[in-house]
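Chapter review. Work through the record for Glycoside hydrolase before attempting the end-of-chapter questions.
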Amino acid sequence: MFKWIKSWWACFFFILLIACQHEADSYAIRGIDVSHYQQKINWQAVKKERDLHFVFIKATESVNYQDSMFQRNWKAAKEIGLKRGAYHFFRPNVSVEWQIKNFIQQVNLQKGDLPPVLDVEDIKNISMPKLIDRVGKWLMFIEEHYTIRPIIYASLDLYQKHLQAAFPNHIVWIARYNRTAPPADLQWKFWQYSDQTQINGIQGWVDQNVFVGTLDELNALCL
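Structure tokens for Glycoside hydrolase:
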């Protein structure tokens, strides 16, 4: 009787352990994304995170906003050996041309940097055809300027329903705060799976991401 009970509990805890596992744990290449919300980051402390390989850094938003910590973070990330990428928070109801200019004036990509990222999450008060048209303009001009195809950041729902069909050839970075990875048929490369991770050298919470692939494949995406 007692042996049966012990066996039952052993099976129960094994099933519970499997259920609690996060699919993100199966990916070896990890990264974070940061902005002024993380305040003044101690990048030398961040360097001690052994499994951290890349960082996306907020550079700009809309037509005239520049993240106050971007230049500091951009320089420091390179100094500690992280692959770095810059992102623009897109505001679809204001001038695309001025948003492009804002980003270009702030971001000087160098050899070894990740492609620029367009963060598409503000979709209020705009039709989907108009959103797709304006996103397309930003992507096209930025690709021409930097000679590398930009990455699209979006929620799983937005990408699946609208952006995937419009931009099938762009690398996608999916935001999905879930234990289960985005569907493989989306051919995503980056997955933002948490916005509540703690990292050495960073005050408070920070977003955590994984890359699907090897370190060599991550390097191959870079400029």
